[in-house]
Specification:
Chain B: Keywords: Cytoplasm, DNA damage, Nucleus. Chain B: One of its GO terms (biological process) is double-strand break repair via homologous recombination. The complex is a heterodimer. Chain A is α+β, with helices and mostly antiparallel strands. Chain A contains 7 helices and 29 strands. Chain A has a 10-stranded antiparallel beta sheet. Chain A has a 5-stranded antiparallel beta sheet with strand order 5-1-7-8-9. Chain A has a 4-stranded antiparallel beta sheet with strand order 15-14-13-17. In chain A, a hairpin with a 4-residue loop joins strand 13 (176-181) and strand 14. By secondary structure, chain B is an alpha+beta fold. Chain B has 2 domains: 2-146, Proliferating Cell Nuclear Antigen, CATH 3.70.10; 156-281, Proliferating Cell Nuclear Antigen (Box), CATH 3.70.10. In chain B, strand 7 (100-107) and strand 8 (111-119) form a beta hairpin. The chains are: A alpha+beta, B alpha+beta. Strand 15 of chain A pairs antiparallel with strand 9 (127-134) of chain B.
């Protein structure tokens, strides 16, 4: 088969791999298994496109890593690289008991069988026990967030232990958290949507000294609100690697990225942030300047009256049809070349989701050389 | 109206946290009454509570290093607040290794009890965590609703068995029935009974002892004339009983209950610095 991946994870590294799976599980019920010659990336996007997670294991992480794709064959048949989308529910059981995993499993073999769309996880445990999990996948093009960390004016670096110690003060039900920064101070505070009875909710604020950070660079004063629930996954993973966490962000409305890097593993969680009421008007105006407008509906509970931003995503879909079904009518798109979606800030009230449409930019980017310059067309 | 208090000692903080956790398990919302010497957590016997009422009293000096209170008026030097004790519990949950904990009445977007926790940090200045807990200020005209309940004219008063044992018995019974019969006599015997169409289960406790009560006027207690073998009983909601037993984080110094046959059971749990009274009405 022209597209195969085979790797072996040593027992001692299984904890980290398992934690990565658990972290990604916080984002979505499905994730992509995206191997290439450098290593294996696990990617996930939530249903409202407001959170993206990627954990990349370099080939050095594995006891053995082998990825083959015959380039000539690929080009001739215009075949895509191996792309598997797995259901989280079927993978989690493999890595459920992380403590016992470390103690009892000597190694884990993972290999793909493209012919019958299965990925096999084979755990070699003590006492000669071998557990084999054959998980079905379906082919799907992974999404990647379009986000440049180095463009962010605000960069913080903090020990993962400390970040956990900060977030622990927020009650477990707290969904959204705001980080407010100036060059002199940092504050994390709980965020409550206006609709909820303001007088009932408890508000928590944590004031920190910039001294507590390993790196503290604030280029622009800002207050950004992001989803804490989604971040908790990364915090759990950070503890397993005990690395420090880098935080890159800008003003409200632009995404915030939390990343961890060590020699063999890189993890990145990119979360959309709520846009300010004041900025909402101006950002919608700038969106309308685009000539190509795409209409689609955003589902999910994040669009509940506050201004919600989603993250730009890109994929490499070639010829395929992309269907979007709304409650009132059926829109069919034909996408020949889908380059990128610029991210936009919109405001939707839950009851208006059906009648409101989300305006967004879709323009051809010149980032990818090997694609033809075909246009996005919309068929209603 | 002003209120500022500070806890500095870690043992006091832990103890206070345990008290708040117990209150949080017993009431979703309750009244906090502040006087110069004491704090009270009060729940009145409204229908919404299922007729349950609670009176918990603490001496502020046993917990706080600093305590300043100015009531609504000079002649009514008290503050009554309505709050959700669970919020207070959450605020204190992550304050275990705090340098100081300050609790004060503030007015942010609405009246709040603000818990400010000063935590040690790696840098020169401490890390400060503040929790603003919205509260309702109870006006003076409603204060009469929150008077201390009197000890009822009970038929039997008896010391409770070890609470942990009692709790595990009641926990198992909860799966079989919604009501439990609590009966006891002046011979130190108590039975917990459940009875359904299919099954009846009784747990017997003996040798519990009966606390001596003296009336205020010094006269003998009316229960002296009672046949010591005769059981006074009350059928109560098992979940309410379990709430009380499960909420106890520390074994009380003294635990007893007063039974008014078929009417009400009055529980008294005494710790060194805290007293808790809990009333569970009998079911029809």
């Amino acid at each position: 088969s022209p597209r195969t991946m085979k790797c072996v994870i040593a027992g001692t590294h299984l904890r980290v791999f398992g934690r990565a799976i658990h972290a990604i599980a916080r984002i979505s019920d499905e994730f992509w298994f995206d191997p290439n010659e450098k290593g294996l990336a696990l990617r996930s996007v939530n249903s409202s496109r407001s959170a993206y997670a990627c954990v990349f294991f370099s080939s050095m992480f594995f006891q053995h890593y082998c990825w083959t794709a015959e380039p000539e064959l690929c080009q001739k048949k215009r075949q895509l690289p191996l792309t598997c989308k797995l259901v989280m529910k079927s993978v989690l059981p493999v890595f459920r008991w992380l403590n016992t995993l470390e103690r009892n499993v000597e190694k884990c073999n993972i290999y793909t069988n493209v012919n019958d769309c299965h990925i096999t996880f084979k755990l070699f445990c003590k006492h000669g026990i071998v557990k084999t999990y054959n998980l079905a996948f379906h082919e799907s093009e992974p999404l990647q967030a379009v986000f440049s960390r180095h463009m962010c004016p605000n960069v913080l670096k903090i020990q993962s232990r400390l970040l956990t110690d900060i977030m622990i003060h927020f009650p477990t039900y707290q969904e959204e958290v705001t980080v407010a920064v100036t060059p002199m101070k940092v504050c994390f505070k709980s965020y409550t949507e206006e609709e909820i009875d303001f007088s009932k909710a408890m508000h928590t604020k944590i004031h920190l000294n910039p001294d507590e950070f390993d790196y503290f660079q604030i280029g622009v004063d800002s207050e950004v609100t992001f989803c804490l629930k989604e971040l908790r996954g990364l915090l759990g993973f950070a503890e397993a690697t005990s690395a420090s966490v880098s935080i890159h962000f800008d003003v409200s409305g632009k995404p915030i990225a939390f990343s961890i890097e060590d020699m063999m593993v890189e993890a990145s969680f990119v979360l959309a942030t709520l846009a300010d009421i004041e900025n909402r008007e101006s950002s919608q105006q700038s969106l309308c300047l685009s000539q190509r407008q795409k209409r689609f509906e955003v589902g999910g509970k994040r669009c509940t009256g506050s201004s919600t931003a989603f993250i730009a995503m890109k994929t490499h879909i070639r010829a395929s049809e992309y269907f979007v079904c709304t409650k009132t009518h059926f829109i069919k798109y034909c996408i020949f070349q889908f380059h990128s979606l610029f991210f936009g800030a919109v405001s939707l009230k839950e009851q208006d989701v059906i009648s409101h449409t989300l305006h967004s930019l879709a323009t051809a980017s010149d980032a990818e050389d090997d694609f033809d310059n075909e246009q996005l067309s919309q068929v209603v | 109206m002003r209120f500022r208090a500070k806890i500095v000692d870690v043992a006091c903080l832990n103890h206070f946290t345990r008290v708040i956790n117990t209150i949080a398990k017993l009431a979703k919302t309750c009244t906090l009454r502040l006087t110069v010497d004491k704090l009270y957590f009060i729940l009145t016997d409204k229908v919404a509570n299922g007729g349950v009422s609670m009176w918990c009293e603490l001496n502020q000096g046993n917990f706080f290093d600093e305590f300043q209170m100015e009531g609504v008026a000079a002649e009514h030097n008290e503050i009554y607040l309505e709050l959700t004790p669970e919020n207070l519990s959450r605020a204190l949950k992550t304050a275990q290794n705090a340098k100081t904990v300050k609790i004060k009445l503030t007015n942010k977007h609405c009246p709040c009890v603000t818990v400010a926790v000063e935590l040690p940090s790696l840098s020169s200045s401490s890390r400060i965590v503040t929790h603003d807990i919205p509260v309702g200020v109870i006006p003076r005209r409603l204060w009469n609703d929150f008077r201390e309940p009197s000890v009822p004219d009970f038929d039997v008063s008896i010391y409770l068995p070890v609470l942990k044992t009692m709790k595990s018995v009641v926990e198992r019974m909860k799966n079989l029935s919604n009501c439990i019969v609590l009966e006891a006599n002046l011979n130190g015997e108590m039975n917990l009974k459940i009875e359904t169409d299919l099954v009846s289960v009784t747990t017997h406790f003996k040798g519990l002892g009966n606390p001596p009560w003296v009336s205020e006027d010094g006269s003998q207690n009316s229960t002296q004339d009672r046949d010591p073998e005769s059981m006074a009983e009350a059928r109560i909601d098992i979940r309410k009983l379990l709430q009380l037993l499960a909420g106890q984080q520390v074994n009380p110094t003294k635990a007893l209950c007063n039974i008014v046959s078929k009417r009400i059971v009055h529980f008294i749990l005494l710790h060194e610095e805290v007293s808790l009274q809990y009333f569970i009405p009998a079911l029809a």
